[in-house]
Automatic annotation (TrEMBL):
Organism encoding this protein: Paraliobacillus ryukyuensis
Protein name according to UniProt: DUF503 family protein
Pfam families: DUF503
Length: 92
């Protein structure tokens, strides 16, 4: 089973692309270290207060994949400097 999630977020405290990159880098690094998923910034690279992540997880059971992606989303929510606005999940 393959689950793909697109996560749009707002970074309120970012005053430059450098500020944005530091937040995104911490989030991506933490998720990659804690969970076995692929994650990348996939849109809004030139906007300094908005970003979109793509997260992909693969496992042999649907429940496992959903649990891992939900844990990633919960981890994103723990960062106070970023707010998750929309999340779209798609089974592939």
């Amino acid at each position: 089973m393959i689950l793909y999630a697109e996560v749009t977020c707002i970074i309120y405290d970012a005053q430059s692309l450098k500020d944005k990159r530091s937040v995104i880098k911490r989030i991506i690094h933490r998720i990659q270290n804690d969970y076995n998923v692929a994650i990348s910034e996939i849109d809004y690279q030139d906007l300094w207060q908005k970003t979109m992540f793509g997260i992909v997880s693969i496992a042999n059971e649907k429940v496992k994949v959903e649990r891992v992606v939900d844990q990633c989303l919960n981890l994103i929510d723990t960062f106070p400097e970023i707010e998750r606005t929309t999340t779209e999940k798609q089974w592939l």
